[in-house]
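Long-time lurker. I teach an intro course on protein structure, and each term I like to show students one example going from raw sequence to a predicted 3D structure in token notation. This year I'd like something fresh instead of my usual example. Would anyone be willing to generate the tokens for the chain below so I can use it in lecture? Attribution to the forum is fine with me.
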Amino acid sequence: MRLARETRGIALRHISEQTRISMRYLEAIEADDYRRLPGGIFNRSFVRAYAKHVGYDEQQALDEYSAMMRERGEATDEVSNRQPRSLVYTDDGSQRSPVKTVLLAIIILAVLSLGVWAAWYFYEHKIRHRTQAPPSHASQTVAVERSLITIRNAIAFAQPRVVERRNPKEDANEPVA
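-- Reply from a regular --
Happy to contribute to a lecture. Here you go:
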């Protein structure tokens, strides 16, 4: 590819500016020193972009890159056709019964609910009573007075109301304001 670039008279800096590939990566591609490249899919992309910019056959450049990497015993970062091995533990392949799954969920929810209830009970009966000040005589008096007012209002509301019956003829004779 260096020969293709030099025969066209293209400066390496110009290619770097046009392709946004670092000068050191372009120099590594020309020297066939692919270990200096970032790796992964970047290597193939850099080789393709460089070949395209200098007018070299892109597929031929990629084939040469892959062949060189195989000769060196390094991966070419191509996607493998084999199925990746799962690193997640799975059972022997049998599915758990939906009934067992529902039962397990109910047990977990019951344990969590019991934990929340125990925390609330402990807070209400142990901690809250210790942090509250004992009621003073004045606050007890106010509470009793409020209770009395509430009782008086309830009694007044419960008493039947006397409604005077008026003669409709009298209402017709009264002037309307």
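Some talking points for your students: The longest helix spans residues 98-131. The chain has a mean pLDDT of 78.
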